[in-house]
Amino acid sequence: MAERMMDLSKLALESRQGIEEPERRRTAATPFVDILEGQLMEANEQQLLSDGDMRRLATGDVNDISDVVLSVTQGELALRMVVEVRNKLVEAYQTLSRMPV
Question: Where is the signal peptide (predicted)?
């Protein structure tokens, strides 16, 4: 019986030697901090654009008010997204801090 087990394990090893593992693709994973920083920068830029459009509207330099409304709405949505991501991060941190070690 033990001899048969050794034969099976030897057979398994021999069959694995012919199998080559596929090459793992090396992808340049972007760190989470960089992604978050990029999103914050985009939200800030959108806020600055909408602020500039509001100033131009106040001075009368705008011909089409719908562009200003669109810009302000995009800025508001970008800010909401940043706030929601922040809330989820805080919630995840609190959940982890309550876990027993």
Answer: none
Instruction: Please state the domain count of the chain.
Output: 1
For residue 19, being part of any structural domain is answered with no
- Interior/surface letters 40-68, b for 16+ CB within 10 angstroms, e for the rest: eeebeebbeebeebeeebeeeeeeeeeeb
Within-domain flag for 63: yes
Q: Determine the Cα–Cα distance for residues 53 and 76; give it in Å rounded to an integer.
A: 13
**Residue 57 contacts by C-beta under 8 Å, 6 or more apart in sequence?**
65, 68
